[in-house]
From TrEMBL:
PANTHER family: ALIPHATIC SULFONATES TRANSPORT PERMEASE PROTEIN SSUC-RELATED (PTHR30151:SF38), ALKANE SULFONATE ABC TRANSPORTER-RELATED, MEMBRANE SUBUNIT (PTHR30151). Belongs to the binding-protein-dependent transport system permease family. The lineage of its organism: Bacteria, Pseudomonadati, Pseudomonadota, Alphaproteobacteria, Hyphomicrobiales. The keyword Membrane applies. Pfam families: BPD_transp_1 (PF00528). It is a multi-pass membrane protein. Coiled coil: none annotated. The keyword Transmembrane helix applies. It is found in: Cell membrane. Keywords: Cell membrane, Membrane, Transmembrane, Transmembrane helix, Transport. This is Sulfonate transport system permease protein.
């Protein structure tokens, strides 16, 4: 916490001494005052709920697609032949570059925003789940077969649990990309959400409101990442891990 505290103190000092003009970046006291005003009117809470809903819906859609394709590709050589190469080609295309096509396909409502987030989040989950399945210890597979486990039981009790650590890592990556895609998505004719507040603030050069929105994006991302890390500790409690020295 020392680094962020020192950064805020330096920011405050630069604002108070005039080194950092308010038209370039508002000071911390102004930002806090603006945040309090937005909370009082309820605008900030409404924007947070809208943006969080978009991010989670897009993540759920993209995650479902990514995990499903990874399981099909990871468990079957035929699935790998049919799925992996197209996915590897598609993931090299920046999701942001698809915004014009998404607007043509889905219009300028909620659909292109959610689709952009889904596209961005599907690939990290696919890559990590696929790698997790293919990196399961072969000795565990052989032990399961020796115990007479069927293919379905082997997948359920050995392969998928073995891939879970990678899947959770992929989920954390996808969450980061979800917030990035959300920022871009909410620039597409948004009428609500944090991006909408930022767009309005940009028109009136309200740097304080823009900073408030950026902080909210960061805090929402941090909160969701904390939830995933908590899930890691719960579901991976069986796995010994290095915790630092």
């Amino acid at each position: 916490m020392t680094g962020p505290v020192l950064l805020v103190l330096a920011w405050h000092a630069a604002s108070e001494t005039g080194v950092l003009p308010p038209e370039v970046l508002a000071g911390p006291s102004t930002v806090i005052s603006s945040a309090a005003g937005l909370i009082t009117t309820g605008d900030l809470q409404a924007a947070m709920i809208t943006s969080l809903g978009r991010a989670l819906f897009g993540l759920a859609l993209g995650g479902t697609i990514g995990v499903t394709l990874a399981v099909l590709s990871g468990l079957s050589r035929l699935g790998e032949d049919l799925i992996d190469s197209p996915i590897q080609m598609m993931r090299t295309v920046p999701s942001v570059a698809l915004i014009p096509l998404l607007i043509i396909w889905f219009g300028i409502g909620e659909a292109p925003k959610v689709a952009l987030i889904a596209l961005g989040t599907a690939f990290p989950l696919y890559l990590n789940v696929y790698a997790g399945i293919r990196n399961v210890d072969l000795s565990l597979i052989e032990a399961g077969r020796a115990l007479g486990l069927s293919r379905a039981a082997l997948i359920r009790h050995v392969v998928l649990p073995g891939a879970l650590p990678n899947a959770l890592v992929g989920l954390r990556y996808s969450l980061g990309i979800a917030w990035l895609a959300l920022v871009f998505g909410e620039q597409i004719n948004a009428t609500a959400g944090i991006g909408y507040l930022m767009a309005n603030a940009r028109e009136f050069f309200q740097t304080d409101v823009i900073v408030v929105c950026l902080v909210v994006y960061a805090l929402l991302g941090l909160a969701v990442d904390f939830i995933v890390r908590t899930l890691e500790r719960i579901f991976l409690s069986w796995r010994p891990a290095f915790s630092g020295t």
